[in-house]
Amino acid sequence: MTSQSASRAPTSFHAMDIEDVIRALGTTNRGLSSQEARERLEKYGYNELMEKKRATVLQMFLGEFKDIFVILLLVATALSVAIGYYDLLRGVAENFLEAYTDAITIGIIVVLVAVAGFIQEYRAEKALEALKKLAAPKARLMRDGKEVVVPAREVVPGDLLLVEAGDTIPADARLIESVELKVDEAVLTGESTPVNKSAHVTVKTDVPAAERSNMLFMATHIIYGRGKAVVTSTGIGTEFGRIAELVQTAEEEETPLQKKLDRFAKQIAYAVLILCVVIFVLEVLAEGLAVKAFVDSFMSSIALAISVVPEGMPAIVTISLALGAREFARRNALIRKLSSAESLGAVTVICSDKTGTLTKGEMTVRKLYYGGKVVEVTGVGYEPRGEFYNNGDPFDPKRDESLLLLLKIGALCNNATLQQDNGVWRVVGDPTEGALIVTASKAGLEKTELEKTYPRVGEVPFTSERKRMTSVHSTLGGDKLVFMKGAPEVVLERCTKFLENENEVELTDAKKEEILKVNEEFASAALRVLGMAFKKVPKESEELDEEMLENNLTFVGLQGMIDPPREEAVEANKRCKEAGIKTVMITGDHRLTAIAVAREIGLMREGSLVLTGAELDRMNEEEFDKVVEDVSVYARVSPEHKLRIVRALKKKGHVVAMTGDGVNDAPAVKSADVGIAMGISGTDVTREASDIVLMDDNFATIVRAVEEGRIIYDNVRKYVRFLISCNFDEVLVIGTFALLAGLAGAGGEELFPLPLTAAMLLWINLVTDGAPAVSLATDPPDEDVMKRPPRKPGEGILHGMGAFIITSFVLQSTGTILLFVLNYYVFPTHPWGWPNGPINEVARELTLAEARTTAFVQATMFELFIVWNCRSERRSVWRMGRSALRNKFFVAAEVSSIVPTLAIPYIPVTASMFHLVPLGPLDLVQVLGVASWGLFFVLPEVLMGRRIWRWE
Hints:
Layout: H1 18-24, H2 34-44, H3 57-63, H4 68-89, H5 93-134, E1 138-143, E2 146-151, E3 160-164, E4 172-184, H6 186-189, E5 195-197, E6 215-216, E7 221-233, H7 244-248, H8 256-287, H9 291-308, H10 313-330, E8 333-335, H11 338-344, E9 349-353, H12 354-358, E10 364-370, E11 373-377, E12 388-390, E13 393-395, H13 401-412, E14 417-421, E15 424-428, H14 431-442, H15 447-453, E16 456-460, E17 468-474, E18 480-486, H16 488-493, E19 495-500, E20 503-506, H17 509-524, E21 528-537, H18 546-549, E22 553-562, H19 567-578, E23 582-586, H20 591-601, E24 609-612, H21 613-618, H22 621-627, E25 631-635, H23 639-651, E26 656-660, H24 666-671, E27 674-678, H25 684-689, E28 692-694, H26 699-726, H27 729-744, H28 748-751, H29 758-769, H30 771-775, H31 802-826, H32 841-866, H33 877-880, H34 888-903, H35 908-914, H36 921-931, H37 933-936, H38 939-944
Parallel strand pairs: 9-23, 9-26, 19-22, 23-25, 24-25, 26-27, 27-28
Antiparallel strand pairs: 1-2, 1-3, 3-7, 4-5, 4-6, 4-7, 8-28, 10-11, 10-22, 11-12, 12-13, 14-15, 16-17, 17-18, 18-21, 19-20, 21-22
Helix pairs in contact: 3-5, 4-5, 4-9, 5-10, 5-29, 5-35, 8-9, 8-10, 8-27, 9-29, 10-11, 10-26, 11-26, 13-14, 17-20, 19-26, 26-31, 27-31, 29-32, 31-32, 31-36, 32-34, 32-36
């Protein structure tokens, strides 16, 4: 984010008339032009609050050298050079050359380690920045006379802002139009009660923000109604900008996994630090109290600490989560909080809305009932093509006036529109209303033509409490027609007559029972049913209040429609079952409709229960807790019930994912372990409360997101498995020889020299903790990733790794010590005396160099081999087949690490830097033979056909 120039417009717009506001801000009813918007963006800057300054690339790189171990190592290296220089002055040139060479080697490796760490941090930072851009809020504006959606950060003063229920206000704005507008301003004023807003009022100049009833303020939420407003100020110029300091000091919170691994890394650091101190003391005792010996021992101990402490673990987790978030976005799931990526892997229950998520969201009328008969309608989706059938025979609907009236009511008592874009038909508005328009169009009744013949002159809008909508239309003769649609039982209550054979007859109780029975039959076939009624109002009638309009109507018929299940939802539910995840449908639809759709998708299992909102209300907490795990479908429930469902499931120990779209869904979405908002149909309020936003509102996307969450967690475990398996063998190797040297007393260092030098330890750390380890974050998933139960939320990151880690640790340590002992003591190439005779210093140094070379190359190669077996907890590399080579980054990382390790003993410069010697054929056979234990120690598992290196 950036700060901006004067984005604060005069603060008296609330005291001005609408015309004056528009004139002062230089805009029109068509909004700004695109060119003008660009110019104002340059002038005022982005619509963002200031944020504390981010570290530059150079600062990030230099930050890698702030680690206390790195600082100590560099200090020790400098001291070593200083001592060497002192020896040079005394005429002992070889000491200076050795110290100088070691210093350069260690310096280069430290820089390379810093570069590797910087690359990790930089990639994580860039991935997080890309994620923030994806998650950026949007604003709906009028520009160039057209409605457009732009990132909220690009809103400028003078923009014409369009708002409706569920939207979050992107900037301060003066209302110019409003319809029953209510705004939640608690975030700004602390007032919990929604505030009524109106465009057509003016207030005094000096009133506080909380009393400016014609203004909208940044970060507040529209609760009800709709409106249009002119943006008056953006960014730090807004009222919310006054609390920008609070935003600046807010720290980005780490995910639970990052916190857990950070604590784990610190615990390891403390343990290693103690061990390194012990080793340092033992080395000093063995080498004596000479200054150079003291510095060398100190340098080796610090290098050991650097190579063992997994300080890069939290960074790798960040990279894994951020890269995973990018993959989520590719799969149409936008991650708003990184912690949700890891939570997804543990989800045990997905509570999903039905309409548009489990189903297509394209309502299609299938059956009609009128005049005592049932008619079937063909066609799919919103394309207005289909035929009408009565008892299996097609007929022309234009010849049936009762049918035409039923269709006219559906098309005119309706606020949706049907459009065709690039050959694709779509509905703007409610899908249910869209289905009615499509059905009328199939009979040749176009809504636009009907509205010319029967213009609307009044409306009583639909609400969830009323469950009906009424519209009033004028006719050519001057009379008025009242059309009503809504829940069949509600519409019937308002009717006294019934249309039969184009005649209005008395609506008897028997007829009502017949209609309700048909309604139930339609609903049991997964149809959503709407009842239609009308009445004529003479032109001389003047009182057209709600009570008069919505009583004594004539019932015309029913329209039954279906929102067919998504084909991919059926398959996704199967995957959930295999993964041990239960899917629960939550809908406001009729119980029978919900059951029918649930059966088609496969949600209903043996013993599954169905609860309605009314039944849920009658249950106390104890009763509900007993049955909550058996409920597969909730029907006729309100958004408020969702919160109760989430809490009950969480009380049972489940990890719950909950979907939502409306404003009232926000509490349940926020309370769930993973809150999921709809990107298409959802409101801004719900999106802000969520962890994930579905860009396609598709249930299958949730399941793909769960899979990706499991993959991310698995890859983090792979990295930890590798790091812990390979980072502690050096401690045992160095500790063993330091202990022997310390026990031997003065001169013990010559008898028991360390198998690995400081430079070698740093190289092992750089090569193995670098590219191969990072590449595990991009590893493809196991084939069974969605065929195993969810992990337990409290399960430790090292769960089940004990046998593998200990076996690897023992094998690698044994291999390093074995090769060093064989080449230094048992079969030295240049016998140097002990135990075969008097000490020959030159022979000793040559033999030590060769022994250290074999130990060093083996230790590095072992780790580069064993990493192949860290790529799956369920299959060794020998069972992975061709899939072992699927991760091209991993293969490239291995090659780029193995080749330099094998090459440095043969390159004079690097051999001199690390005090290595070229390895002969027999040496290479020894090294690769022992290092290959990292590949082959899992063969017993392959031969026995079961896992033995995993503790459950």
